[in-house]
Fold:
Amino acid sequence: MVDPLPSLKQLRDIYAKIDTVKKNHIKLTITILMLSMGLFFYFVSDNQALARKNEEPLKVAPETIDPLYKIGKGLQMVECAKNSSCAKEILVPTHVEEADDSILAETVGDSPMAEMVPALKQRSKEVSAYLVAIAKKESDWGKHSPKKGGEDCFNYWGYRGKENTTDSGYSCFDSPSHAVEVVGNRIEKLMDQNIKTPAQMVVWKCGRDCEAAGGQAAANKWIADVAKYYNKLNS
Structure:
């Protein structure tokens, strides 16, 4: 079997037979290759060092990225290296202004809804404004609201959900804060569907058909009454 690779002695014999000009060309070629390799490894090493330097974590303020901010439930800190695989989609919400508890308290006065002011304060200004405005229209802030077993259901919006329902189908909540959480979340979902103005929010009363829900005149009155307090609290 013939060795596919020449031995060192064979290489020397081959090199000895090459004339001087060709030998100089070979030496020059080898020198150029060695210099090129040296430059290549230098740039690779330098770029790696630069990459390590740039991998210092980028601090992101908690008030900037806070998916739970709008419902008042904690903060999430996000740190991301500039050149790392931080390609996860992060939705940064726009700033949400909190409701002013002093204005809320002044508006609802000593009505049953006064108990809800601390919970209302935790919602966004727009959501709390609708909670107060709709509750005024539907129950006069709790003065005329569903009860179960003689106990207040804290349902001041005529809300019909799955929560411990009354015989007439209204939700009966465990506490004022529970009521604000459930109904506030429902209003927030409507707003996320681009239902923003009182005229659009009339779906709360009408559903899909205002004519079948008391007529357009009643719907227009609902819009005007809700807008009065919504605009006051959201100005």
